[in-house]
Amino acid sequence: MAEAQELTTTQYISHHLTNMTKQVGEGSFMTLHVDSLIMAVIMGLVGIGFIWWIARGATSGVPTKRQAFVELVFDFVDEQAKGMFHGDRHKFIAPAAFTVFVWVLLMNATSFLPVDLMAWVYEHVFHLHNWRSVPTADVNTTFALGLSVWLLMIYFSIAVKGFGGWIHELTCTPFGVKPLWASPILLVFNLLFNLIELVSKPLSHSLRLYGNIYAGEIIFLLLGMWAATGLVGTAASAVLTAGWAIFHILIVPLQAFIFMMLTVVYLSMAHESH
Amino acid sequence: MNINLTLFSQAVAFAIFIWFTVKFVWPPLLRAIEQRQQQIADGLAAAERARSDLANAEKKAVDELRQAREAAADMRSNADRQAAQLLEEARAEGARIVARAREAAEQEAAVAAQRAKETLREQVAQLAVSGAERILRREVNAQVHAQLLTDLKQELR
Q: Interface pTM (ipTM) of the complex?
């Protein structure tokens, strides 16, 4: 950090948590987080591209270690999809879950990049001020994923059960509409229940990932800040950062796994009728 | 935490990645894995088949061996029997030859004895005649006494 001595704690943290924005239109909504977008796309290209490269040369004979590794991930995701979805999972759900898992895993994994070092690199090598490494610590990214899955869920609900079937599910479950005299009240309650569920799904889906990764990043920043207090603080910060990074090795794939699982669960539920 | 256009750009990126995976990444991996599973299943089935083939072949080999042993034993006992029979026949033949030889010898001996007896009888008769001639010292009419001598010869037989 070039101007570290001039920064207060708040400035330091907010500097690290400020996205690089680009105004593309009127109003605060019409801005782009260039760093989130580019880091996400790079991670996607790296992950999906690597697997695509292996998949193109995949042999049914004795696999190379690279291919075996990709097949391990493949099988891991495929097993989850198989356990929850009863249909032709290879058409969409399993590859979609695979994409989610690989992409989110790599996006989360960018949080292993040391914050201050990368800030220096971005600043002095790429001349980028306010560049955040972790796309999933940006609520826009997680909401983009969560809402995409949510829209797919609604799409599949309607595609499988028909629009009428979907509306019926929203209004006539879980309490039913019998007896007849109580049906208006039951209808309202059913709808209310289902709407709450419908709204909470993308919220919990997105915010869980965002919260975990964002909190992890803040801990890294707080530990990094300790290094400003002197030699002892630097040593303690190094040890604790290493410890937190090791713990983070657990969180990163766990959150990717949870996000992937919820994707499969939501899409599977959309295919099932009550 | 401000929601903005990034939401849409990330969603578009997400959609593209999903489309790409569904289209180009998942199918070749799935194909490779399923083919390998098929190959492994085939290989296991072939191994199973080979094992049962081997067991059959071993059983067959044991059978063949047993048959061969039995055939050999048969052959040996046949040969023994045949040898014994040949020996028996040879012995019988030998006995027959010996018996025939003995018989022939006995016959020959009998004939010889007979001849000797005849000769002896002639000589005895002549001796008797000449003896009688000497005793009587007189002419004996041989023709008169020929009958007598012949009778005497008959008696000596």
A: 0.87
